Amino acid sequence: MTYYIKYQENGKIKTKVLEEEQYHKKNLPNNIIEIKKKNITNQSLFTQNKRISNKELINSLYELNLMLEANLLLDDALEILIENTKKDNIKEFFRKLKFAFSNYLDVNKSLKEFKVDFLVKSLFKITQDNGNIKENISILYEILNEEYETRKELKKVFAYPFILLISFFLALYAIFKVVVPKFEYMFTQNDIPLSFATKVLFQLKYFFENYSLIFLVLFSFFIFLIYIMYKNNLKVRYFIQKFIFLKIPILSAIYRYQQFYRYFTVINSLLNSKYEFYETLNKSKSLISNKYFLDRITKIDNLLKSGKSISYSFSKVEIFDDIVLNIIKTAEKTNSLTKVSFDIKNIYKKRFTEKVKFFSLFIEPAFFILIMGLIIWIVLAIFVPLWSMSDILKV
After folding, report:
1. How far apart are CA 165 and CA 366, in angstroms?
2. In what residue span(s) does the Type II secretion system protein GspF domain sit (predicted)?
3. Residue 284 carries which DSSP code?
4. So what's the pLDDT on residue 312?
5. Could you report the per-residue pLDDT of 69-93, keeping only the tens digit for each?
6. What are the residues whose beta carbons fall under 8 Å from the beta carbon of 230, sequence distance 6 or more?
7. Which of 72, 146, 185, 239 has the smallest number of CB atoms closer than 10 Å to its CB?
8. How far is 216 from 234, CA to CA, in rounded Å?
């Protein structure tokens, strides 16, 4: 938010421009005639938000968490963090955060210019509302750090197969450009009978030579179109996020368990802060970025408002398995939702970890099988006609 202040000084009309932080600090001139505020939301297509590195943010949250554990006030802890931080984006991020907390401004609006994990802004907003600062900062650090370590492990798993796959396709490019044309000429000149694998190879070579550029342009345009529709059309975004949430083998389960783990971690934190379950459910919706998951939780909220039980409401959305539903049903009867939310959080954390490990074990052999299959296909496509040629020459 920018403020344009028109004021009179020495008989002349002047204009002063103040940013929101300066304006709230009352850095105002005398003899004000008019104040106009302008919210600059229209950015150009190439304007980007200030990106905050996950690693830098996690390190800063670790320091902040330590200071809060030592019973420092949030303002004092943030001030120390700002003074000791060297990165400009991180420094500005925490300066804006401190200003928002100190002046009771909306955290989401204050941090709008920064590109960070959706959970970060949402959890800071909940912290601002419920005041449970120490526990929420600790939870935020724990979740982000675990997910960062998981991403590092997945990158290690993907690194070798990915390099191998890139090398293979570069070799395939060389084969299509140099090797296959010579064999095609030799086979056609000698009227050699071609196997199915050889015919497919020659067809791919023909496609590669004549249509690969067109295919790449059309494919790039299609991806760009999907991206634009995803950004601007809520129905498309809902459909894609539902597909990601439910339909992709293995990856959907990893993503789903991650979302559930985040969700029940915050539910447990709010219940520990003595919030009623209905209020907790409503507040926690702000943490959900996936539109399909948000729609399911909103349905639970609506069922609870209409007088349905908690266990019934959770069962009707059809995204939670029987074990979790039975635990919720037991907790509702014994009035132990706070304890049970902690148990459910741990269940989904364990499932998330197990799925990631399974995927790590699965992906490398899958890449090797794929590459091995492609190599066998090319070998058969080249050598089967050669064997036929040798039989003809013997005759």
Report:
1. 11
2. 63-181, 266-385
3. H
4. 92
5. 888 888 888 888 888 888 888 888 8
6. 236, 237, 240
7. 185
8. 28
- pLDDT tier at 394 (50, 70, 90 boundaries)? low
Per-residue CA distances from 272 to 159, 183, 262, 337 (Å): 41, 72, 16, 10
- Residue 70 burial (CB count, 10 A): 8
Query: Are 309 and 331 contacting, i.e. CB atoms less than 8 angstroms apart?
Result: no
CA distance 198 to 26: 79
Q: Regarding predicted confidence, which is higher, 333 or 173?
A: 333
Domains of the chain (ranges plus CATH)?
2-38 (no CATH), 51-145 (1.20.81), 151-395 (no CATH)
Number of residues in the chain = 395
In a 13 Å sphere around the CA of 89, the CA atoms on its Cβ side amount to: 13
Indicate if the pLDDT at residue 222 is higher than 90.
yes
Q: How many Å apart are CA 386 and CA 184, to the nearest integer?
A: 11
DSSP class of residue 4 equals E
Structure-block tokens of residue 173: 């490019």
Q: Is the pLDDT of residue 95 over 60?
A: yes
pTM value is 0.70
List the structure tokens of 292.
């399909």
Nearest to 65 by CA among 105, 110, 123, 106: 123
> What one-letter code names the amino acid at 87?
K
- Residue 113 to residues 41, 52, 225, 242: CA-CA distances in angstroms? 10, 11, 25, 28
C-alpha 150: how far from its chain's center? Answer: 13
Q: Summarize pLDDT for 192-201 with one digit per residue, the tens.
A: 777 788 888 8
Q: What is the distance between the alpha carbons of residues 188 and 376, in angstroms, rounded to a whole number? A: 22
CA distance 326 to 286: 26
The reported pLDDT for the residue numbered 45 is 39
- Residues 13 and 29: their CA atoms lie apart, in Å, by 12
Q: Please, where are the H alpha helices in 233-288?
A: 234-246, 251-272, 277-284
Structure tokens at 293: 């998951």
Tracing tokens 């266990």 back to the chain, one arrives at 311
Average pLDDT over residues 61-76: 88
Do the Cβ atoms of 385 and 192 come closer than 8 Å? yes
Reading the block at residue 357, the tokens are 């490990």
Torsion sign (Cα): 372, 376, 378, 379: positive
What are the residues facing 14 on neighbouring strands? Answer: 7
